[in-house]
Design a protein that fits this description.
This protein is mostly helical. It is 82% helix and 0% strand. Pfam families: Myb_DNA-bind_6 (PF13921).
Length: 216
């Protein structure tokens, strides 16, 4: 069988998937990922996008969701880092008032030495943020365990339901067989009753015919 020249190999699909997932984790656009892959494979970005949406994407749905979660975590970490840097800069380099600025103080030098109270306040803020992160992590782990328990319970109930359905089917089959047996028994009883009635009539007729012969 002849292979098309524009056919995608397994290695190219892997490169496309890894690049797109990386761009998702880093908060970049998929279009940029398609352009990057296109440069490496000498294909157009449109061709890469079509291949991703038509074939590759559906094979990596779980990885895409995980990449989106990592992107959110990365964004949150960057925002927290910026916040810490801003707080550290505010502590280390407080704003100069107009009088000191007029005296020619350099804005790149601290106006006053860093105090112990400021260091303690900054470290306490860092500790609070770390405690909040740890609490969030523990809550996430608790929810994961709870979800696993519910999934296990759901699986048990599903198996129990299958067992009850199978048992109900067996009972139904037994009931239908019993009904058929009873119907056949009634039919046989009716036929047997008809035969007994005919025999009785014949015996009675024979008896009436034998009585005159006995008197003569």
């Amino acid at each position: 069988m002849k292979t098309r020249q524009d056919a995608w190999s397994h290695e190219e699909d892997v490169l496309l998937a890894e690049t797109v997932l990386q761009y998702i984790r880093e908060g970049k656009t998929q279009l940029a990922a398609f352009e990057d892959v296109g440069r490496q494979l000498h294909r157009t970005a449109a061709a890469c996008g079509f291949r991703w949406n038509a074939e590759v994407r559906k094979r990596h749905l779980d990885a895409i969701e995980q990449a989106k979660k990592q992107r959110k975590e990365r964004k949150r970490a960057l925002e927290m880092m910026k916040k810490w840097q801003k707080e550290a800069a505010a502590i280390a380099f407080p704003a100069l008032d107009d009088s000191k600025a007029a005296e020619g103080s350099s804005p790149f030098l601290p106006a006053a030495p860093l105090t112990l109270d400021q260091c303690i306040a900054f470290l306490q803020a860092l500790r609070r943020d770390a405690e909040q992160l740890e609490a969030a992590r523990q809550e996430n782990e608790r929810l994961k365990l709870e979800r696993a328990e519910w999934e296990a319970r759901n699986e048990q109930l599903r198996k129990k339901l299958q067992h009850l359905e199978a048992r109900q089917s067996t009972v139904q089959e037994d009931f239908e067989a019993l009904v058929k047996i009873m119907a056949r028994a009634r039919q046989l009883a009716a036929e047997e009753g008809d035969r007994l009635s005919l025999a009785q009539l014949l015996l009675a007729e024979v008896g009436e015919q034998s009585e005159p012969m006995a008197h003569s």
